[in-house]
Design brief:
Number of helices: 4
Number of strands: 2
Oligomer: single chain
Helix content: 25-40%
Order of helices and strands: EEHHHH
Largest sheet: 2 strands, antiparallel
Strand content: 5-15%
Strand order of the largest sheet: 1-2
Radius of gyration: 27 Å
Distance between the termini: 61 Å
Length: 133
């Protein structure tokens, strides 16, 4: 455990892992998330800019929650795109097609046979110990 400075409030806290913010700020971020989630539920089709303005949360934070797949916004062409192929998406970093391709690729890599280890080379006299006279 190490002491860190919270990136939001600049107070010191014992850092365990994850985002470098103190427990009080984590709680505040979670309250903001719930507020945004409720707004999106009540206002389907709202843009990131509209949600940010109405909920008083940064666009960057909302985009982060979408990339983490914590939020899903209605499809708006070009607002969120797949990082691999550029297709329009509503949540996450990749479209379903690219996700499936990556999963298939990883599965096929795992299924490939591991190379067999080479047999140890035999010594001329076997494994016998020799002594010099």
């Amino acid at each position: 455990m190490e002491v860190q400075t919270c990136s939001r409030c600049r107070k010191f806290f014992n850092y365990i892992g994850g985002e470098r913010i103190c427990p009080a700020c984590k709680e505040e971020v979670e309250k903001e998330f719930q507020k945004v989630k409720e707004y999106i539920r009540d206002n389907r089709g709202a843009s990131v800019l509209e949600v940010a303005r109405e909920c008083e949360v940064s666009e960057k934070q909302i985009r982060e929650w979408v990339r983490e797949e914590r939020l899903e916004l209605s499809s708006r062409d070009g607002e969120f795109v797949c990082e691999k192929c550029g297709a329009s998406i509503t949540s996450g970093r990749f479209c379903d097609k690219c996700k499936n391709e990556m999963v298939d690729s990883l599965n096929s890599a795992i299924k490939k046979e591991a190379p067999k280890p080479e047999a140890p080379k035999k010594l001329r006299d076997g494994n016998k110990m020799r002594f010099l006279k």
